[in-house]
Amino acid sequence: MRLLQRYITLELFRVFVMVLIAFSVLLVFVGLFQQASENGLGPMEVLQILPYVVYSLLPITIPATMLLTVTVVYGRMAGDQELTAAKAAGISIFSLLWPSLLMGACLSVSALVLTDQVIPWSINKIQETVMIKMEKIFLDQLRNDHNFIDDHSGLAIMVIDVSGKTLIKPTIRYTPSNGQTITIQAETATIQFNLEEQKAIIKVTNGLIYISEDRRIKFCEEEYSFPLPLGDRKQKARHMAVNEITKELVLIEKKHEQLEAKRIIARTMSLTSGGFSDFTMPEFTDLLQSNLLEVQRKNRLRTEYHSRYAMAGSCFFFVLLGSPISIIQAKQQFLTSFFMIFMPIVFFYYPIVMLSMNQAKNGLFEPGWIMWVGNGLIAIVGLYFLKKVLKH
Predict the structure, then answer these.
(1) Is a pLDDT exceeding 60 seen at residue 285?
(2) Which of 111, 135, 208, 388 to pair with 127, CA 20 to 30 A apart?
(3) How is 199-233 classified by DSSP, letter by letter?
């Protein structure tokens, strides 16, 4: 790398690091406040999730930081006539712009890695902290009220007392949505929340299992798992890695084919037998409902898959737009140039991205191309100004 390109790269890197730290500090407080208010976290829990909040906010701060960086560096160089001197020496403006384009491309790849690998890991760490807090709240409720009831999962627990994490003389009643009620009485029990499997694991000792009024089983030590109280049944798409999204899409496609085959068979049998009323039966409507839910989940996963690449690539396109405009606006203050570029991005680019995302999730457009519309528009405007800068 020649001397002039090294000089520009070091200037870009220096300003980028300074601005990134400033942006991250500002947004971290917003992220911490959101997590603390949503989950009722205390000061110790907030300090524990602080590093993970920083990781989760980096893909948001990196594109805006890089846009401000190129605005500051190239705006100052153009204002100080450094670019004019370079052109007078026969140096192409493009050769001075490629360090920022290369840096933007590298940061786009970095943002993709952060979104795909680091953010799901940091989200899991935040949820683990929240889960520990939820486990403490759960035990405190049992200790104070001597009972816990979760109507959504059909789980009810009553205890005489709680010693640490040990339940004294618990009575556990579990009623699944499509099954028989099971009642367990034991001397002691311990409970542990499993975040990955979204289950509450209860280990009971010395007790009885009441399966029906005239049937009960005595045991010395048993372990049972129940749906996690207050837990999400399905992992959110934005918390999943690309390979996890791909695997689930394959499974959904197979399940969709099976449901479609069952629906065709049921419809054919009803039509051939003249049982038109069967179309309103719960068995048939449940198949349609299951198929609809799977299609919605598939649309969300595919939208997240393509939006992840498009949003990561926005860093490069912001550089492509910001660099030539900052050179043209050389005599202006760099903040003026930044807001002149960033405001249209805020009021046009991000609304277009959000609208495209919603339409793709609803299945109205193919996410493979609709998620790149915003970047495409920025590329067109950026190339127009780049051509103008290279020509004059």
Answers:
(1) no
(2) 111
(3) EEEEEEEEEEEEEETTEEEEEEEEEEEEEPTT--S
Asked whether residue 168 falls in the same domain as residue 64, the answer is no
Assess contact for 206 and 220: CB atoms under 8 A: yes
Task: For residue range 311-342, list pLDDT tens digits in order.
Answer: 889 999 999 999 998 888 876 666 777 788 88
**Residue 116 DSSP symbol:** I
Beta carbons within 8 Å of 217's beta carbon, 6+ residues apart? 208, 209, 211
Give residue 381's pLDDT. Answer: 93
| Full-model pTM | 0.71
Cα 274 to Cα 223, 262, 268: the distances in Å are 50, 18, 10
Same domain, yes or no: 108 and 34: yes
Same domain, 123 and 161: no
| Overall number of domains in the chain | 2
Instruction: Find all residues with CB under 8 Å of 374, minimum gap 6, and list them.
Output: 310, 314, 349, 350, 352, 353, 356
What range does the domain containing 200 cover?
153-227
Q: Is residue 240 part of a domain?
A: no
165 with 128, same domain?
A: no
CA dihedral 73, 76, 77, 82 (to 10 degrees): -160
Distance CA 375, CA 316 (A): 9
Task: Indicate the DSSP class of residue 239.
Answer: G
Same domain membership, residue 162 and residue 83: no
**Where on the phi/psi map is residue 249: left (φ > 0), alpha (ψ -120 to 50), or beta?**
alpha
Q: Where are the beta strands (DSSP E) in the chain?
A: 147-150, 155-158, 161-163, 166-168, 171-174, 182-194, 199-212, 215-227
- DSSP, collapsed to helix, strand or coil, labels residue 166 as strand
